[in-house]
Amino acid sequence: MPSFSAGASAQKQQNYQRRRQQVREQRKSLPIASVEKRLVDEVRKNDTLIIVGETGSGKTTQLPQFLYDGGFCQYGKVIGITQPRRVAAVTVAKRVAEECNDQLGKKVGYSIRFDDSTSNATRIKYMTDGLLLREALLDPLLSKYSVIVVDEAHERTVHTDVLLGLLKKIHLEEGPGDILAFLTGQEEIESLERLINERARLLPPESSKIWTTPIYSSLPSEQQMNAFKSAPAGTRKVVLATNIAETSVTIPGIKYVIDPGMVKARAYNPVTGMESLIIIPVSKAQALQRSGRAGREGPGKCFRLFQESEFDKLVDSTVPEIKRCNLSNVVLQLKALEIDDIIGFDFMEKPSRTAILKSLEQLILLGALTDDYKLSDPVGHQMARLPLDPMYSKALIVSSELKCLEEMLIVVSMLSVESIFFSPREKLEEARAARKGFESLEGDHITLVNVYRAAAECLEKSKNANAKERTMEKALTRWCRENFINHRSLKHARDVHSQIQGHVQQMGLNPSSCGEDMVLFRRCLTAAFFLNAAMRQPDGSYRALATSQSVQIHPSSGLFRTKPDCVIFNELVRTTQNYVKNLTRIDPLWLAELAPQYYATED
DNA sequence: GAGCACTGC
User: Fold this and answer.
1) Between A431 and which of A241, A388, A423, A538 could a Cys-Cys bridge form, CB atoms 3.0 to 4.6 Å apart?
2) Closest CA to B1 C1' — which residue?
3) For A55-80, what is the mean pLDDT?
């Protein structure tokens, strides 16, 4: 029936024209349409341009089309637009292809990991930032692109940051001089180091070489020292640092600083006792401090990977620690100084009322304060003398009564320092095997005692061999390396141990050891850390008894797989989930027996 | 099955 199909086709044609008209009108009505000419001119005039506009103003869909119409795709060049998420890259590409009245994959296409719709004809290419970074590895100058649009740049991922840095060209366009980049943590440093090294292999052979060197606090000091060495001639040193390089150490010879403007900060919820590390923008003071690390010995430059308007929005200075940590120790110290009215105390930076009340409550539960908020005698006075977290001070006093002070002194020393175990990603299995040798089925506290004693034994052996102090220290360093123990943390723990040992002797606590009786020791841990008990739930998760929070055992714990019915823990941290760390298996009945003031009524 | 800013007593 030819007439019918002719009619249908005419109808189709009409619908199509109407749709085209709609699209044209819609495009014209977008706020960005009025500045098309100016935008294209500005892009042509500037190497880097930051465009700010409301959501829905049409930046993502229109700008690439303006640039295309403005001639940015001559000679086969491509306009690349990055998106922080895969879905966005696909949907925006589809939308723009429709607006261009073209099939997806021709003029307009997208490319994401495992899915590439582009062809040789593609001139407007939407992609994820991670994918563009991969392309940059193969072609550092991204030579097939005439323009790169980094969309949603405020949704800053490490990828966008590195990308923005690369686009500023982190290396090829600037003169010689070392670079210092501020990152938030070990993981970010490690992944960026890998990326840079992959990319560095593909640099044009005539350009100078790149040498990356990480520095962060849990890195063993031998490796930290690398950051202070100078690079061979013709090589540029790139130091990837946490804010350890902001104030704690000064690396000589830095000419360029790269500051993405973020920092990892501790956050604390006084009600739940939950601690977390969150990534937040730096303060103005921090940003200035960071830029000041460039060119200390000559002219330098700081590349801030954020906009000037963002800088103005930064807070002037970092929120002081006192407003974001557990206050129990501060309150205990004030009480010992006979300052009774803590709430009314004239703090320079006043912590929240809730935080103060919570710590007063905790100190009462620990027996450091009486019910009328007075320092108790002798426990409160003893606790205030010890430079430890009040819960650890309490643990020492309890262990003196229960006759396992020696073991508890080791535990609180080891818990008071940074992580004892060092597990570099590339030697994870070896590190795990080494740790197995110390591990106790009863829990992490006894594991820590085992590590401490094994280290002491190592020192004892070399002492018996009449070794000099320096030889002994070397033997310990080697032992640490072989056993994947962080030497610096262990040394710190030994220092804390000897300092606290001095205090407990002066205080007249009862020196004692539980010997092989680990039940006694676990009971003592229960008596000390009863506020941090958790019970396994039918679904395998745990419930922290004091706050009823749902928590999981952190995978770094020796009890991660065993999942005992009841545990006491020392740390409550929130990362991807609520985690408890440093655990020991206990009998739930011990709680009512050893902390009746807290548990008896509940049973 | 996580991924760990810094300092001080």
Assistant:
1) A423
2) A555
3) 86
Residues 439-478 of A with CB within 7 A of strand B: none
Tens digit of each residue's pLDDT (9 = 90 or more) over A220-229: 777 888 888 8
How many CB atoms are located within 10 Å of the residue A383 CB? Answer: 28
What local confidence, expressed as pLDDT, does residue A1 receive?
33
Q: Quick: pLDDT tens for A13-42.
A: 787 788 788 878 888 887 788 888 888 888
Q: Is the CB of A436 under 7 A from strand B?
A: no
A315 and A330, same domain (yes or no): no
Whether residue A11 is contained in a domain is answered as no
Residue A460 structural domain = 386-512
Nearest nt to A425, CA vs C1'?
Answer: B3
Residue nearest to nucleotide B9 (CA to C1'): A387
Contact A393, A383 (CB under 8 A): yes
Q: Closest residue to B2 by CA to C1' distance?
A: A555
pTM of the full predicted structure? 0.70
Q: Which nucleotide is nearest to A579 (CA to C1')?
A: B2
Q: Which residue is nearest to nucleotide B4 (CA to C1')?
A: A186
Amino acid at A236: R
Q: Could you tell me the distance in Å between the CA of residue A334 and the C1' of nucleotide B9?
A: 14
Nearest CA-CA partner of A411 in A274, A569, A592:
A569
- A561 CB burial (10 A radius; 0-12, 13-18, 19+): exposed
The answer to whether strand B lies under 7 Å from the CB of residue A244 is: yes
Residue A5 belongs to some domain of the structure: no
Q: How far apart are CA A595 and CA A531, in angstroms?
A: 9
Check residues A394 and A1 and name the one with the higher pLDDT: A394
Tell me the pLDDT band of A5, cut-offs 50, 70 and 90. Answer: very low
- DSSP 8-state class, residue A421: B
Q: Report the C-alpha gap between A53 and A337 in whole angstroms.
A: 56
List bases, strand B, within 7 Å of protein CB: 1-9
Q: What CATH number does residue A191 fall under?
A: 3.40.50.300
pLDDT in tens, A522-561: 999 999 999 999 999 999 899 999 989 999 999 889 999 9
Instruction: Give residue A4's pLDDT.
Output: 42
Report yes or no on A377 lying in a domain.
Answer: no
Same domain, A130 and A170: no
* pLDDT at A346 (0 to 100): 75
> Hey, which residues does A110 pair with through a beta bridge?
A126
Is A499 near strand B, with its CB below 7 A from some atom of it? no
Q: How many domains does chain A have?
A: 5
- Quick one: A317 and A331 in the same domain? no
Using the Cα atoms of residue A355, residue A580, residue A156 and residue A209 in order, give the sign of their dihedral: positive
Per the DSSP assignment, residues forming a β-bridge with A78 are A145
Average pLDDT over residues A373-397: 92
How distant is C1' of B5 from CA of A361, in Å?
29
Residues 295-324, chain A, CB closer than 7 Å to nucleic strand B: 321
Chain A window 380-409: residues with CB closer than 7 Å to nucleic chain B are 387
For residue A490, which amino acid is it?
Answer: L
Residue A369 gets which letter from DSSP?
Answer: B
Alpha helices (runs of H) in A416-529, residue ranges in sequence order = 428-436, 444-464, 469-483, 487-506, 518-528
Contacting residues 9-48/A vs strand B (CB within 7 A): none
Q: For the residues A237-255, what does the mean pLDDT come to?
A: 82
